[in-house]
Specification:
Helices cover about 30% and strands about 35% of the residues. By secondary structure, it is an alpha+beta fold. It has a single domain, classed as Alpha-D-Glucose-1,6-Bisphosphate, Chain A, domain 4 (2-Layer Sandwich).
């Protein structure tokens, strides 16, 4: 099954500020990943080209790091996830930036069912939580996206 899953958020900050923030991903001072609610993103050797890691049962390899605002990962697990996901920073103006997360993959076998019924829902909630964390970092507010009943149920089952 072909999957194209995209999330975006416009942040009222210049691109270099977001690049600096994204560079904290998977570090001790991670200002992006919502590890308060979700399994932390971890890489044994740090976030660098060729590093292998992931979060929870999802595993991937860092395949591209562009210092102007792109980090791409190739899926390794679950088996049947064939493709990549990436964070990208897109300049809209000198003080407005779009942060985008994209999954572009195809699924095979049981991975298709896992995506449709479980992973997609959890993934979407996680990414919105990450974007909220970033937006809150700059705005000083506490934006929070409520998880739907299916996400709450899945989190309870998988506890």
């Amino acid at each position: 099954m072909k999957i194209l899953n995209q999330h975006g958020r416009i942040i009222s900050q210049p691109p270099p500020v977001l690049v600096k923030l994204i560079s904290t991903l998977a570090t001790k001072n991670d200002l992006v990943w919502p590890k308060e609610y979700w399994p932390a993103m971890k890489f044994g050797d740090g976030l660098k080209l060729g590093a292998v890691g992931g979060h929870g049962p999802i595993r991937y390899e860092v395949t591209r790091i562009d210092p102007t605002g792109l980090i791409a990962f190739e899926f390794r697990k679950p088996i049947g996830f064939c493709g990549q996901h990436k964070f990208e920073i897109i300049k809209l103006s000198d003080d407005r930036t779009k942060l985008e997360h994209t999954i572009d993959m195809r699924t095979e076998g049981m991975a298709t069912l896992a995506w449709v019924f479980v992973i997609r829902w959890l993934h979407d909630a996680l990414i919105e939580d990450a974007f909220n964390k970033i937006e809150n970092h700059f705005s000083g507010t506490v934006k929070k996206t409520d998880w739907n009943i299916w996400v709450r149920t899945l989190r309870w089952i998988l506890k």
